[in-house]
Amino acid sequence: MKQRRQGKGVVYLVGAGPSDAELITVKGKRLLEEADVIVYDRLVGSSVLSYGNNEAEYIDVGKRSGFHPIPQEEINKILAAEAEKGGRIVRLKGGDPLVFGRGAEEAEYLNAQGIAFEIVPGITSAVSVPAYLGIPVTHRDMASSFHVVTAHKKDGSFPDISYDALVKGGGTLVFLMGVHTVKDVAEGLLKSSMPPETPAAVLERGTTARQRKIKGTIADIARKALEEKVQSPAIILVGQAAGEDQMEWYDKRPLAGKKFVVTRPREQKDKLSALLREKGAEVLEAPTIRIVPIEENPALDEALEKIVDYSWLVFTSPTGVQIFRDYLKKHSIDNRKLSHLKFAVIGQGTAEKMREWGFSPDLMPEVYDSRHLAEELALQVGKKEKILLPRARMGSRELTEILERAGIQTADIPLYDTCYESRPFVDLEKEFGEGISDYAVFTSASTVRGFVHAAPELDFGRVTALCIGEKTEEEARKAGMVTYTARRADVESLVLLAEEMEKQ
Fold this sequence. Notes:
By secondary structure, the protein is an alpha/beta fold. It is built from 18 helices and 20 strands. The chain folds into four domains: 10-122, 3-Layer(aba) Sandwich (Cobalt-precorrin-4 Transmethylase, domain 1); 127-247, Tetrapyrrole methylase, C-terminal domain (Methyltransferase, Cobalt-precorrin-4 Transmethylase, Domain 2), CATH 3.30.950; 253-288 and 421-503, Rossmann fold, CATH 3.40.50; 291-420, Rossmann fold. It has helices at 26-34, 46-49, 72-84, 103-112, 125-132, 163-169, 182-191, 221-227, 269-278, 298-305, 318-330, 348-357, 370-380, 397-405, 428-433, 445-454, 470-479, 491-503; strands spanning 10-15, 37-40, 57-60, 88-93, 117-120, 146-150, 172-176, 199-204, 212-217, 234-238, 259-262, 282-285, 289-293, 312-315, 342-345, 386-392, 409-420, 439-442, 464-467, 482-485. The two termini are 45 Å apart. One of its GO terms (biological process) is methylation.
């Protein structure tokens, strides 16, 4: 748990956007990264929550239609109580906090209690969800205005809506939180003389992999929504623009409609997640392991003091490169002391991290795994040469065993520990048990073990695992998962594997 800042805290009422993790504002993301406490509700996607500080306290105050486990008055008190303890309190709300999000009530309460607060706007679902489903809320030829209406009151009852005014006003009508009131909305508009052929649509779970659009007219949209068993969250759209069908773009990308759980550590996940999202996938970043550098490392200190005795420096992960580099910097060790060394890396990702450091690898196997790296080293390293191998404490024994059999002296020095990790807002058993997520992506055997540890009750036969290499696949298959392995052990090949799966 983070150490709170002293003094009374500040509450940030942050709009999370509709659900897509990349639709939160830059400021909202920064505040999540810095937060001491994150108070969130049901409409906030878990993908957005993954930006949150790993050491923050997470408080779920989720509400859904007809089921309010924590009343709004209690939420107000929670915000005030947490602020009294000090620190940064992020109240994360779906969409925009002031567009039917009850952010105004929370701000008024905090103000009455003398607690500082800030409001950080978010992208409302009223415009973003239609956009993701190819519908403009305004259009030069169809709608010169749009009107946002709530389809239920704070107590869950049906609101008093002036349908006459809405029909006379024209433009696009957007009804939020109306999945259970489609019939009432349609009847109200028809009774106020809206033409029955007026286009209408119900947009379900917008900006997620499971989004869908049910189109019809105001006369039949209620029946169609019932037949399609539409679930919350969903919005109702009425007007000429609701019939637009020339702007659909979301489903045209190769991984659209698919959700991936990325399990690699927080420090490594960005590139993989970005590549998947670029192809249209929804990504839930759920690290199952955490990298913990060994701060006091006498074995490494001794090796660095005798670095002239070594001829090769070998890295088996980008993480190893970064932690080794940080260790040198922390102990004021000049990089020039490594100038006599040759460098070997396990694969392209590690090579890229080496180049960022200013070194080019001298050896990289064609197949990116421990066995092929060891076999290449055995061919190229002389009998009188010595290898320094800083890596994870629980690194593969296969690598060192091959080197030992070849008679090569190797100093296998633990550089970091790999610990299991889970996030309080990620329910892997629900994600895969209920078919919410389509794939789990694993970049090491340890991420598989962390996944299994985090979801002990899950039937792993329901998990389709995309694996970076043979050892990773072996671990996933041992757990009972359905496994597929990338042709090469790099993140680009994992994404290519996902695309190939969807073409089948």
